[in-house]
Give the backbone structure.
Amino acid sequence: MRNAPTILHLDMDAFYASVEQASKPSLRGKAVVVGGLGPRGVVATASYEARVFGVHSAMPMAQARRLAPNAAYLVPRFTLYRAISEQVMALLRELSPLVEPLSLDEAFVDLEAGGTAWDEESARVAGITLRADIRAVTGLTGSVGLAASKMLAKIASEQAKPDGLVLIEPGSERALLGPMPVRTLPGVGPATGDHLRRAGITTVEELAEAGEDELVRLLGKAHGHALYAMALAQDERPVVAEREAKSVSVEDTYDVDIHDRLRIGMEVQRLADRCVGRLRGAGLSGRTIVLKVRRYDFSTLTRSETLRGPTDDPAVVREAAARLLDSVDTTGGVRLLGVGVSGLADYTQEDLFAQAVPVPVAEEPEKGAAEAVQDWAEPVERHWRAGQDVRHAEHGHGWVQGSGLGRVTVRFETPQSPPGRVRTFFVEDPALESADPLPLVADSAHLLGRPGQSGSDRRGAPPRTPQEGGGGEDREQPAAEARASDRAQGPVEAQASSDPASLPKSWSGTGGGGATSRP
C-alpha cells in the first residue's frame, strides 16, 4: 500500500444517457433510458432522472417502461460513445502513462507514475483539473476517487457520484470501511453476500473480526484470503496500462425466437464477419473459433474448434462457425447467437494453415434470368430507430423520436441549439437520410493547449518536481481504443454491488500523507 492517495479512479456519470442528453437539448433534465428497445431488451444506462423511478442498468426494458412510462427510450450509439471515450482516455494519459481502462467510461490512473501527484494536495489538484478538463472537452461530468489503492479509489468514486470528488487519506481506510456493507467490496455479489449474512456477517468490520480462518472455511481458500485482505483495506494490485485481450466476440439477442435453420445459418455467417472485423481492427488473429447458442428454453450451448494456426480470414471463420452450428440442435428455436475467436495472436499464417474450402464459382445467370429476379425483388422498407441521427434536406440535422405505421417523427436540434421542433414524414421520404452524430462541444480542442501536451504543463495542473521525474517533456497521447466487451472484467459477482455508506463529496478522511512508495 502507498503512503499517498495517488491512484485515481474515474467513472463518468450515467455515461450513455448523459451523452444522449448533451446531444439532444430537449432531453436535458428529463428521464432518459438507453438500451435494447425490443421485447427482450435490457437497460444499458439510465439517467439520474430515470433512476428516481427505480430504473437501473441490466433491468429488462419492459420493466423499465412500466416504472417510467414517460421517459425517452433510445437505442445506443456506440460510435459516438467510443469517440467520446477516446477523448476522455486521452486526457487521462496526459496525467500518466499508466492508465487502466475498465470500460468505455471507467479507468484507473497511477498519478505517481506520471509525476502528476506525490501527496494529498497534488492528487486533489490533479483530480479537480481532470474533472474541469473533461467538462471542457466533452461537456460531460465524471466522478473521481483518490486513494492509496485501486479498491479504495473505486469506492471513493462511488461515494463521489454524481459529479464529485472524494479523497481517502492513507491511515483512515479501516475506519471508513468498517461500517460499510460487505457488498461494497469487489467480488462480493448477491450469492456471497447472502452466504455471509447467514453466517451473521453483514459489515466489513464484522468480516475483519471473523478472521481469516473462518472466511476460508466459509468461502474457500482463495476467496477467503482475498476477502480478508480487502476487509483490512489491503490491496496491492498495481495499475496495469495494457490488458491482453483473451478473446474477441460478438453476439445478438433476437426479439422473436428464430426457428428457420437457413436464417440461423445466415445470422451465424453475419456474426462471423462482424467478429473478423473486430479482430482486424485490433490487429489480431486467433486459432479457436467459438459458437454460442442460447435456445428457446434459455439453455446455452457453446461449441469450439481449434484451427491449425491463427487466422483473420473471414471465410475460415465463417466455415468453422458453420461446422459448429451443424452440431447444435436448434429445433425449438434460438433467442441468442454469438461467434467468438480466442487463442489470439498478432500475426496470421494464412498460406500454411488456411482451412477455408474453396468456394465453387457459380455460373453467371443469363441476362434474362437476372432481369426476372430484379423484377420480382420486393422493396426494402427503411427502418428508423429511436435516437438515431438523421438529416433532412430542408430542415437539417435531427434525431428520430419514433416511427410506425409508415411514418417517422423527427426532432430537429443539435447539441449547440435550443430544443428543436418536431416534424413527421413518410418513412420513404427521399429528403430524409441517416447522418453521423455531431460533436457535443464545438471547437473544444484549443481549451487544453497543443496536442500531446502533458497534464502537468496545462494551466491549473500541479507542476512536477525534479524528484518525481518527467521534467515536463511532451508525450504522445494515443486515443484509447476502449472495447468493453473484450476486456477482462474480473469475477461475475463483482459487477453487482450495493451502494456503500454515504460520505460527503469533499470528505478527506483523517491522518496525513507522506513520502510515496509503490505497491
